[in-house]
Design brief:
With about 210 residues, the chain is mainly beta.
Length: about 210
């Protein structure tokens, strides 16, 4: 029996991980160290939008679902990885996708945010046209290998807002460089942070 292949698509979280300019950087510190007892206790201080993470609908719409209120189904199940033909700063359109959408969860690799430790503002994001199509075709979740589904210069986050109103979950900050396009099982459950506007995930693809 062939053993399933696992792809870890989450960047490591340490002091080098880049966060959105002005957001709270990741910091881990030892809270209590009992070296003689072989026990180490750590604490972390960070934005919830760190590394691979799931946005809650309340992130851009007041009163919408917080991360602990989000349905779990979108974050677990059949998934399609698509490599888009896009340049930096581009808004991804349906025409940029080389294959049809064939799964309820879509992860789009852009290659426009290559180093999670260096924040580049010219990453690719979703166009409103593609956001509408995702909703209309019944997609439950969309994920990107960039810090946001909206472009950096966006002021009112129209893609975030449309996805939230349409009930489409989103993942941001994924690492998809080593993942071949195709069909997988996605496992990316967000931390259950009460009232949280996002939740870090350990995102894995099984194929």
């Amino acid at each position: 029996m062939t053993k399933p292949v696992l792809y870890d698509i989450s960047p490591p979280l340490d002091g080098r991980i880049a966060v959105w300019p002005g957001d709270i950087p990741f910091k881990r510190e030892t809270a209590l160290d009992h070296a003689s007892d072989d026990c180490v206790l750590s604490a972390i201080h960070t934005t919830l939008h760190v590394g691979a993470h799931a946005d809650a609908f309340c992130h851009t719409i007041a009163g919408a679902a917080s991360i602990d209120e989000m349905k779990l189904e979108p974050y677990l199940g059949p998934c399609q990885v698509i490599r888009a033909r896009v340049a930096r700063g581009h808004a991804i359109t349906p025409a940029d996708l080389p294959t049809p959408l064939d799964a309820p969860r879509i992860l789009i690799a852009t290659g426009t945010y290559p180093d999670p430790t260096r924040f580049n503002k010219d990453f690719a994001a979703l166009s409103m046209e593609l956001a509408y199509m995702l909703h209309e075709t019944g997609v439950l979740l969309v994920g990107l290998d960039t810090p946001s589904v909206d472009r950096f210069a966006s002021v009112d986050f129209p893609v975030h807002r449309h996805l939230a109103r349409a009930g489409v979950a989103s993942l941001e900050g994924l690492c998809l460089d080593s993942v071949p396009p195709g069909m997988y099982e996605l496992i990316a459950l967000p931390l259950r942070v009460a009232g949280g506007d996002a939740g870090p995930v350990r995102a894995v693809l099984r194929g």
